[in-house]
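seq as requested:
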Amino acid sequence: MVTLNGCSKVTWMMYHEDCFFFTGYKPCQYKRACDGCPHYKTVKSRVLIISLEAMGAVLRSTCLLLPILRKYKDAHITWITYASSKPLLENNPYIHRLLTVDAKTTAIMQ
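struct tokens:
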């Protein structure tokens, strides 16, 4: 909120939804408005991988990441898996966002 001459005016932060660091619902890791941000990086494509199988199948699926990034240069990859598989994926440099679900969340999605 900005006050000018005793009058309050609401100002909105503008976000670039096509930014590599945009999370979809809140500011990015830099916690600033997008206008003039030196970290702004355009994403041309986003890839979502949902792998809810056993941990071995999840681990074997990671071999797809490099071919995906070769075909879709500068793609932002989000991976959804069960919490039990998170340790297998959390330090992978090709996964930009890692989300976990549990059995209750999976039932809701069906």
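The mean pLDDT is 80.
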